[in-house]
What we know:
By secondary structure, the chain is of the alpha/beta class. It is about 35% helix and about 15% strand. Strands 5-4-3-6-7-8 form a six-stranded mixed beta sheet. A two-stranded antiparallel sheet has the order 1-2.
Amino acid sequence: MLYTYTYLKNLCIFSFQPKAKKTRKFAVMKKMIKPTDARLKKEDREIKKVKKVDPHERKIVEASKYSSALFFQYNTQLGPPYRILLDTNFINFAIKNKVDLVSGMMDCLYAKCIPYISECVQGEMERMGERYRLALKVMKDPRIEFLPCLHKGIYADDCLVQRVTQHKCYIVATCDKALKRRIRKIPGVPIMSVGKHKFVIERMPDAPQM
């Protein structure tokens, strides 16, 4: 009986023994190498000197060329059939609001519309994965035309901004606020977006006052 009591007592002490808490390491800063470290090369040790600006030096200002398609703020290259550049989120919002791309554009502009998708937008959509497989099916519509990209980088927003800066014959279809802010700075480029189960156009130019 005494043996059983001591065994149970030791068992209880062992079972109720507190465990040491293990703290996780987080926000560990990377150690920086000192400039005097022997592992650094001579070129890396030398601190680059900041070039002093000469106040008498002639400054060269590069001004962007004004497009010949613009009559002040009116875009003369913009007319039916309208060429519309599609962004990734515009296709997703059109599917959520159950609006067909081509018929929704024609209801908005009352003219023939040709939707275009650049290679950067197509690649961005394919990288999104299986969640957006319905959008990938919409992209395979034979009415949608694809544009090749010859620029550096794969960022879709930069691709669209660069394209409408060079060619003024496009309308940009997007729901991205940051991209809209960038395109509003470019004169003569309208913006199409999705609102209340239909497409809406922003700042479509009127006829010039001759």
